[in-house]
Amino acid sequence: MLSPRKVTPGTELRSPQEPGGPATPAWGTLGANSGVEPKAHHVDSTRLGLGTFRRALSWASPRGSSQRPKEDPGRLQRSSRGSLLQSFRRAVGQGPASAQSQVATVPKEPSVVTGGTSQQAASGVGPEEPQREAESKSVADLITERQLVAAFKQLRHQETRLVAEKTSHTFAQDPTAYARRAMDVCLLYDGLAAELGAIVRETLSPEGVPAATLTELALVVRAEEEAHPAPPADGDFLRTPRHWRQHWEDAVRRSAQDRVRAVGATAEAAEGAPGLAQLLAELGGLVRGDLQKVHLEVQPAYAAVGLPAWETYLRAFHGAVAQRLQELAPGARGCEQLYLLLDWAANIYGSPDFLDAPDLALPAEPLPPLLAPDVWAQLESDYTHFLESKIWSCFERILQLEQSRWAAAEAPEVLQGRYRAPLSTDIHMLVAEHVKAASAISAELEATTLRICGRALRLFVPRFEKALLESGAASEQHLGAYINACEELRTSLLDRFPGTLEELEKPLVAAIHNFQKHLLQGLQSDVQPLFRVVCIKSWLTQDMLCPLMDKVKAFARHLTHVAPPVAQEVLQEAHRFVVREYLAQVLRPHKRFRGEERVRGSQKMSEDAQAISETFQDLVLNLHPRASRSLQGSEATWLNQAIPCVAEILGETYKDDIRRHLETLIQGFPDIRRDHVLAILALRRLGRRRNHRLLQHSQNLLRAAAGAGPGGLRPARKHVLFEEIPVPVSVDVLITCI
C-alpha cells in the first residue's frame, strides 16, 4: 500500500511515451482550495491542455466537496466541478488576478501543488541553473518529465513545511485545512509512485528507459525510505511510510507476469493456439533476453544506489514462469507434451547455460521449485502412464517388422562373423532412448522407466518366441540370429543396468534354450534316418557314417555365426545326440553278429567312434578374424569313451576282462541302468553263469553309485547319456536275464 488514500483513475500521470502528451495540474482550482499566492498561479495558457483539465477535475473535486459540508454529496460534487471549471477558465483567459480574489480569506502560503518561487526561497536548494529551472516547475510537470528526484524534493519540502505549520497551530481555526492540503500532497506522492510503476513497465519494452531515469527511480525509492522510516507516533497519514521499495518490487513482478503471459498470445490470435514446443521455445527466448537486458542495462543503473535489481527481476521472472507452467500443466496431453514440460523445467530452464552467459546463472538454492511438488509428481505419473502404452506399442511394432521380414523370406545379415537380426538393436535403442530421456528428468523417473521397459520386454520375449516358432520361418539362419539377439540382450542390458533388470534373465535364457532345442530338432530330423544303417551286414564293409558326418559339418557351419558360448552348447548337444543315437541303434540291432562278424562289428564301432570324435573335435566354431578366440570343436570329451567301451565288451576275446570293461563303463557313465547292461551282455552271448556273475557285479556297482548321495539317492549328474536311451525287451535280453 503506497499511501493511506487510493489514487483516483484520473490522477495517474502519463509518461512521455504514452499518447496524449504531458499533463499539468489545474492551477486555479488547486490554488483556490489551498491558499496559494497569485504569483504561484501564473502559467502560460499555451501549456494547458486536455490532460491538465482532466487532472484538475480529479484532484480538485475532493477538496471542493470538503469546503461545503452542509450540502448534499451529489450537489456538492456538481458544484465543485462547476467551480473548478470556472476557475480553470479564469486561469486561462483572465490571468492570475481573478484567481487571487478567490483566496482573500486564506493565509498567503506557497501552494503545496505548484511549488513556485516562494518554495525556492524556503527550500534552500542552491543557485545552479538546472535546479532553479526544476524549482520553477510544478511537481506534476516534474513527474511528467520524469525529473523524479526534483519532484520528490519539492514534495518532501511541501510535506515538511505543512507538518511545521501544523506543529505551530496554524490550522487551529480551520482543522480541515490541514487535511485538505495533506491530501493534495498524498495525491502527488501517489502520482509519483504511479510514474515509478510506469517506468518499470517500460524498462523491458523495445524502446526501454534511459539509465539516468532508472538511477533517479532508485534514488527516489531510497530517499522515501529515509524520509519515512517508521509510522509517526501521532498517526499522521502524511508521514506514514509509503513502502516504495515494495511498490517497485510489485511493479517488477507485474511486469514479468505480463510479459510471460503475453508469450504465444499473438500467434494464438493470428493462427490459433501454438504448439507447446513453440510456446516453450518463445518463453525461454523471452526470459533469456529480458534477463540479459536486466544484467547489462538495468542492473548497472540501480547498482549505484544499491537497489538489488538482478535478484528482484530474477525472482519475478522465476515466479512468472512457474505460474505459466502451472497453467500449462493441466492441458498437457500425451507422452510428448508431458515430457516437453518436464524436460523444459528440468534441463532447459534449469540449465546453467540457459542465459547464454558464463557469468549469469539461475541459482538453485534460493529460488523455489519451478513446479510445485504435487504438480511435478502428477506430471511424472501421467507421463509414465502414457509411456507404458507407448513402449508396449513400440514392442508391437518391432514384432510386426520382424514378421514382415519372415514373410518376405529375408535371410539375416552376417556382420562381424555373426548372424545379425535388427531385433537386438531395436530393443537396445528403445530402452536406452527412454531411460536416457527419463534420467535427464530425475532418478526416480529413470527407475520407473527401467521397470516399465523391463516389464514390457519380459512379456514380449515369450510372445516373440511363439510367433517365430509358429511362423514356419525358423531356419538355421533365423534361429542363429535370434539366439545372438537374446544373448546380447541378456548380457549387455544386465551389464548396463545392473540391479534393475534381473527379471529379464529368466525369459531370455528360456528363449535361447528353446531356440537351441528347435535348432537341434532340425539336425535330428535330418540325420535320424541315417542311423538305420548301423549294425547291418553292409555296415561291416562300407563307410555308412560319411553322409551323417557331412550333415553334421554343414550344421556346424551355421554355428560359426552364433555367439561362441551358445554355439558350444549347441555343438555339445549335437555331439551327445549323435553318440546317443548310435548307441541306441547298437543296443537294438537289426542283426546280431556272431563269431568273426561280432569281432568285425566291434572293430567297426571303434572306427566309427574315432570318426565321430575327430569330426566334432576338428570343427571350428568361430572363423572371424576379429573374434577374441576361436573355439576348436566340441568340449564334450566325456562322450568319446561311450562307444569304445561297448565295442571292447563286444570284441573282447579274454572274457575275464569283460568285468573290467563294465566297471569302466559304469564309472564313466553313472546314468547307465541295469537294462542297458543286460542289452550289452545280450550282444555278447556269454554263458549263463558268466552273465549272472557280470550282472550281479554290475548291480553292486550301480547300488554303490546310487548310495553315494544323501539319503541313498543317486547324486546329481552333470552328464546324461544312457538315461535317454530306451532299451526294448527282446528275446535275447530275456534269455540273458534268465
UniProtKB/TrEMBL annotation:
The keyword Phosphoprotein applies. Keywords: Phosphoprotein. Residues 1-138 are annotated as: Disordered. InterPro entries: EXOC3/Sec6, EXOC3/Sec6_C. Residues 129-138 have a biased composition (Basic and acidic residues). Residues 76-90 have a biased composition (Low complexity). The keyword Cytoplasm does not apply. GO terms for molecular function: SNARE binding. Transmembrane segments: none annotated. Pfam families: Sec6. GO terms for biological process: exocyst localization; exocytosis. One of its GO terms (cellular component) is exocyst. It comes from the Eukaryota. Belongs to the SEC6 family. This is Exocyst complex component 3-like protein 4. It comes from Heterocephalus glaber.
